[in-house]
Amino acid sequence: MSTEGRGFAMHLPRILMLLLLACPVAGFAQALQTFTLPVTNPANGAYHPDIQASFPSVQWATLDRLYLPAGHYKFLRIGNLPVRSASRPLVITNLGGQVRIGGLGHYYVFPIGGGSNWRLTGHYDAAAATGDAAYQGHAGGAYATSRGRYGILVDDGRIENEDGTDTGYSGVSVGGGATDFEIDFIEVTRVGFAGIVLKTDNNGDAHMRNVRIHDTYVHDTGSEGFYIGSTQAQPQHRIEGLKFYNNRVVRTGTEMFQLGQAGGGSDIHHNVFMLGALDWKSPFQSYQDNAIQLSPRAGSLRFRNNIVIGGAGSLLNMLGANITGDPHAAGDLVELSDNLWSHSRHFGLYVARLTDGVTNYRFERNRISDIVFTYTELTPGATNYNQVFRMGSGTGVANTNPITLRENRWQGPQVFVFNWTNPNQTVGNVTSTGNANVATMPSPRFVDSGFPDGFDWFRIEQWGRQTPSGTAITYQPGDYATYQGKLYRSIATSAHSGQRPDQNPSTWQLQPDPADDLRLATDSPVQGVGLLDGVGAIFAHGFE
């Protein structure tokens, strides 16, 4: 019997007894109130779109722990979580081993919704009665061995259907008006669309505030790593007070991090976003091949001390949203500072549609390198803009808000802004000071990325047969390709196309799963960015 199965069996009597009443948990002066979700067979899934209605005897206003019994679930759906206070949140965690969700052929994986002041966590903490000692993820610095070792694992087992199309399934989807929640110490992988989705679509009266996402491991997704906030037409609600830190987002088909409808008070800091837009030659939709996408709408926003490696169309796609009725105040600031950006196949950072007339935008002390124009592989005849910052007009309305570019460094032949010959000047609403082109830019050295130092990150793509225009996608000897969440290396002696990696062992060699220990090494020439528990990762400017 598997570890998950033993854990489930061990707790089955308690489950069948329906622990609907308060149960003591050792180590607390006052016993915690706990409830273990009754699950007869995880392989059939667990469907509770209104969990309060499913279990009316549970004291949802005071329940301390909602336990998910260990097992491999076909799907898990939990909706209408209770509205709780910040002083007494509801903690949802695994019990008796690992909870794995997905990979058994269902059309959704883990939607969760409603309520406030709840926490979804796989973190093992004996004193707090959360998680399991055998499934601690990267706790204690065990990043290199954390794959598959989180207390809550969402793994749908595949990214593409047999015909090569994306499955379209996301991993964790939080909506239903949920707000003021926390997600940590979970792993999401091998889903056809986004790893984690946070939004309540088409409801301008909803709100999602004070969300904390940290210490997650999202990797090998068909599309976005994180999809936060709607990109649909109004009415949509704002995302306010998001705190997003110490996350690894690795090998995504499209953007690694997408934040739309940003409504103020958000801080995205000390994360590693690694190898985005791998499906750039065959994305599900045009212009979905950037590394990061931000859509500031109202209020202030910070994006700082992050490592961003790998994009196709751009490293940043920033599109402002000026929505009638949104609150704006003097002093609103969107700040992107102290980040490392590298490896774009087109240009650097795109900034457009900044027109609310109040918000200031500031880019300072960023390090930008390895912009190598190869976009003609997707679009023959594509124009090389040859720019680090490209200021767009979006729908025909030029940026009007003040934009400051200060003390940034870039490496490469690109001009800094537009067709400027001098990177330090003021033109219209753009003020640029203290910026410089440098001959070389040091690269971060990780504890164990799974690749040698100096590896050319451009050599990794998501495998595909052809571009949307019908051009065959060609691979060279020594190229790497991901397929269904696995990594392959081309061992062919000549260029080839159309040979699916899992079916052509004479062309593609299966590689070990990358360690993804993306902490900075002690001897890394780059410091001050990336994971908070990396050596030297706390930048001098501090963090909250």
Summarize the structure in words.
With 544 residues, the protein is mostly beta strands. The protein has three domains: 1-193, no CATH class; 230-450 and 531-544, Pectate Lyase C-like; 451-511, Ribbon (Seminal Fluid Protein  PDC-109 (Domain B)), CATH 2.10.10. Helices cover 3% and strands 35% of the residues. It contains two helices and 46 strands. It has a 24-stranded mixed beta sheet that branches. Strands 6-9-12-16-20-23-26-29-32-35 form a ten-stranded parallel beta sheet, with no helix packed on it. The longest helix is centred in the first third of the chain and has 14 residues, at 3-16. The protein is globular, with a radius of gyration of 23 Å. The two termini are 45 Å apart. Residues 1-29 and 536-544 have low confidence and may be disordered.
How does the SSE layout of this entry go?
Layout (H helix, E strand, L loop, with lengths): L2 H14 L17 E3 L9 E3 L2 H4 L10 E9 L2 E3 L11 E12 L8 E4 L2 E6 L30 E4 L16 E4 L3 E6 L1 E4 L6 E3 L9 E2 L2 E3 L2 E5 L4 E3 L10 E2 L2 E3 L2 E5 L4 E6 L3 E4 L2 E3 L15 E7 L4 E4 L2 E5 L2 E6 L13 E5 L2 E5 L4 E4 L7 E5 L2 E5 L15 E5 L11 E4 L2 E2 L4 E3 L8 E2 L2 E4 L2 E2 L8 E3 L11 E3 L11 E2 L4 E4 L2 E5 L5 E2 L10 E3 L6 E4 L24
Parallel strand pairs: 1-3, 2-4, 3-5, 5-7, 5-8, 6-9, 7-10, 8-11, 9-12, 10-14, 11-15, 12-16, 13-17, 14-18, 15-19, 16-20, 18-21, 19-22, 20-23, 21-24, 22-25, 23-26, 24-27, 25-28, 26-29, 27-30, 28-31, 29-32, 30-33, 31-34, 32-35, 33-37, 34-38, 40-42
Antiparallel strand pairs: 36-37, 39-46, 41-44, 42-43, 43-45
